[in-house]
Amino acid sequence: MKVCIYGAGAIGGLIGTRLAAGRRCQVGAVARGATLQALQQHGWRLQTPSRLETAPVRAVADPADLGVQDLVVVAVKGPAMADVARRIGPLLGPQTVVLPAINGVPWWFCQGLDGEAAGMDLATIDPGGVTARAIPIRHVVGCVVHAAAAATQPGVVNHKMGKDLIIGEPAGGESPRVQRLAALLAHAGFDVTIDRRIQRAIWYKLWGNLTMNPVSAITGATTDRILEDPLVRSFCSAAMAEAAAVGARIGCAIDQDPEDRHAVTRKLGSFKTSMLQDVEAGRPLEIDSIVAAVPEIGARVGVATPHIDALLGLTRLFARMRGLYPQASTSAF
After folding, report:
1. 272 is catalytic
2. Each residue of 264-323: pLDDT tens digit?
3. Which homologous superfamily is 200-321 in?
4. Which CATH architecture has domain 2-196?
5. Which of 147, 126, 124, 151 is CA-nearest to residue 137?
6. What is the pLDDT of residues 43-60, one digit of tens each?
7. Which one of 160, 163, 205, 272 is the catalytic residue?
8. C-alpha Rg value of the chain to the nearest Å
9. Are 259 and 191 in contact (CB under 8 A)?
10. CA nearest 21: which of 187, 180, 192?
């Protein structure tokens, strides 16, 4: 079986190392710059609390050098998806499965939903439908990653905690290809759950991230400091209530209240969100998929999101002033 990891950062490196170490597939990677050089020289390197795991990889800059794959794991940040769409073609054959291990709302999210959101194109996520045309929905298996990992240096991933993967068909149900994929990932050491309505799992993860990520980016605070401030926590709870209302309208209801989720977040301790890590590293911020998609969907299904709108505006302005988000927005919001 041929597997390509497209984007060899923290999550891509975690999945790539474990799949390669499982020895059931040939694992390649599309990377660039110092990460590409490190992979070519050393292979996969994954630091766990107990040891350094290594595994071989064929790392390339041009996807055409790998050719058609059985599985492509896309593990890039949202701002890089347009470039992936332009370059992924040589990796895709008629039966190739694409597993987007990405944050926030993915481009295919509304495919398979019922009601008002069914088939909705999201301008915040995929302006002009570029990604949807490059990666047709028939290739996609949805994925939610619950793992804490960081790329501590090019080609080296520090896996801190968590190994949960939730996967499922965009159209719902449980297909033979999802069952095969679950078996492969489980063999590689992940705790895999097949979800018959994967969009709900995506929305639940987003429900917490859409506040903690941007608030931490703007303030520089870890999640414990955010939750210790009663005014900030109250603002986050109000934004989460709006996201839950949107979710209820699109078949992704949340069965908790914000304080339940805050209690889970508190258990992480002094935790830096991925968006705060991106600010500190000077990387573009994933504002569209984590924040902007929610008010876009809300506006189109008739749910007001004033707190999320304010958070979006503040985060986007913060990022633009630091060159971490385009000055001329491609988003409708």
Report:
1. no
2. 999 888 889 999 999 999 999 999 999 999 999 999 999 999 999 999 999 999 999 999
3. N-(1-d-carboxylethyl)-l-norvaline Dehydrogenase; domain 2 (1.10.1040.10)
4. 3-Layer(aba) Sandwich (3.40)
5. 126
6. 999 999 889 999 999 999
7. 205
8. 19
9. no
10. 187
